[in-house]
Each structure stands twice: as structure tokens, then as C-alpha cells.
């Protein structure tokens, strides 16, 4: 049985949030595409960064996450794929979004397929994905899907905006990266046991 877990991180500050809505739609698109790759089960785990804002500040100050934040971080770093969506503030990702990825252990996202998204009030900030989010994920050594999805306020509910098509395309790209990635499996210590004769020689000092 082929199962996948996708962590959908959204750093919207309000509820309801267009940032969370975009993350949900990207998750749905990736799920549909993974089923097309033969997945039996796809679990999308939403992570609302705003719910952990105080814990993130404490983590930055102390160097240690509390138990709830640790569980979230382990979910994100242990997922088969990641969706990361931020609102755009001052032409870049939000401080809350950056803080979340600042506390992830170095190397924990290496090779993890990532789909990037962003929301904003105007299409003028759409390049933030390419000049802010992609360099961040490149530094973390994640594998980023080619298509990033930016949704301006006017894109929602407009068929002419092409938002639905961009979401479907990006979800398909993430699914292809996830399905093509070899799963990280811990070695089974009993799969190739040490021969009994070797153990006897070691014990006798031979």
C-alpha cells in the first residue's frame, strides 16, 4: 500500500485566511495528482504557523521548542512533501514564516520536495516567490517544484486569472517529485544479521 504525507504550512495571520485557503487548494491538487501516480492514501497535514507564534519566539530565545512545536516540526521534516505558503509583506515572506523555517534543524529539509505559494493584495508582489522564497529553500537544500503559485486578491473567484490552472499544474509537479523520491527507510538490523561464527570469533578475541 502506497501512502504519502504532505505537510501544508501556511503563515497567514487572520482567520479565515487566503493563505490557508491557497495551501488547502494546493494540497487538494497534489492529492489528486498523487492518486494518479498510484497512491493508495494521501494525508495532507495543515500547519497554521500563527498557532505557534509564541512557541516560535520562545524557541528562538531559548534554542528549544516546546512539546507541541517539536511535534509540528517533526511532522514537517518527516513528511514526504511540503507545501509552504506565506502572505507577502514588504515585498517578501512574512517574519512569522521565516521564523518557522529558522528553527528547523539544519539539513532536515534536504531533498524534500517543496511547493511554494504566496498571497498578496496586488499582483505586483508575485515575484516574491522567485527572489525570496526560492533562495530560502535552496539554502535549506530542499527540492523545489518549478511552478510557484501566487494569488492576488483579484485572482480569487476569477476564471480569467488562471489561478485554478496554476494550482493544478503546481500540484502535479509536487506529486511527481514526491512519487519519484526514494523513501528514506531506516535499515533493518535483522535483515543482514552478523553470522554466529563471527560473533564467536569476536568473543574469543580471535
UniProtKB/TrEMBL annotation:
InterPro entries (alphabetical): CE1759_FMN_reduct, Flavoprotein-like_sf, FMN_Rdtase-like_dom, NAD(P)H-dep_FMN_reductase
Flavoprotein recorded as keyword: yes
Region feature Disordered, mapped onto this chain: 186-206
Boundaries of every NADPH-dependent FMN reductase-like domain copy: 5-156
Keyword terms, alphabetized: Flavoprotein, FMN, Oxidoreductase
PANTHER family, per the entry: FMN REDUCTASE (NADPH) (PTHR43408)
Protein name, entry field: FMN reductase
Protein source organism: Actinomadura parmotrematis
Lineage, broadest ranks: Bacteria, Bacillati, Actinomycetota, Actinomycetes, Streptosporangiales
